[in-house]
Amino acid sequence: MTEMVAGLPGGSGPFAVRDLERMPDDGRRYELLDGVLIVSPIPGTRHQKMVVGLAAVLNRSCPDDLHALIGPFAVRPGPDTELQPDALVARAEDLTEELLPVAPLLTVEVLSPSTALIDINTKKAAYQRMGVPSYWIIDPVDARLTVFELDDAGVYAQVAEVKGEDGVEVERPFPVRVVPAELLGTLWRRV
Fold first, then answer.
1. Which of 12, 15, 114, 167 is such that its CA lies 20 to 30 A from the CA of 160?
2. Parent domain of 138
């Protein structure tokens, strides 16, 4: 189950990025959003298969001046926020060896039972505020991809949704075709 913790034990204030260094190395994902700690459990098989499949698809089409990366990889736009999307695309010039200090061009979250509400609501709103041009949500249970892009007002609008063996051609951050069932490989046929 994903937990959201508003401040440090003892009430000494909200969390800061420096506090993440003190988190245990226990396989959980520790993220920070506006000083609130988000702790997520280790993802499952279908989740990880989707992430690996998506990384392969993105890497095949990714131009040389961009990089497609899988999480955990820190997106740290400020001292009280560090998110680790399941996948992201960023400009090569924006990346450091340790993290991405600015908004990526694309963030992708693959839903888990324990993270779905945070991914669909909280993180989507955070990525919108950061100005991430494209946000994808993938549901590994029914192999569904939902694509959101910032409109002229800076608000996410759903521009595509495909399921199973249906594919979608997207242009942002670069032209690529994604078929959700193919991301699962042989797990697509397993229920």
1. 114
2. 44-189
- Is 28 inside any structural domain? no
Residue type, 124: K
State how far the alpha carbon of 171 is from the alpha carbons of 135, 147, 174, 178, in Å.
13, 11, 5, 11
* Per-residue pLDDT at 9: 52
pLDDT, tens only, 22-63: 888 888 888 899 998 888 888 899 999 999 999 999 999 999
7 — pLDDT class (breaks 50, 70, 90): low
Domain contains 114: yes
Q: Which CATH number do you get for residue 150?
A: 3.90.1570.10
Q: Which two tokens stand for residue 188?
A: 């697509």
Beta-carbon contacts of 109 under 8 Å, excluding residues fewer than 6 positions away, are 85, 86, 115, 119, 123, 135, 136, 137, 138
CA proximity to 42, closest of 112, 107, 122: 112
Token readout for 59 is: 């890497």
Distance CA 104, CA 91 (A): 7
Specify the amino acid at residue 17: V
Distance from C-alpha of 2 to C-alpha of 38, rounded to nearest angstrom: 7
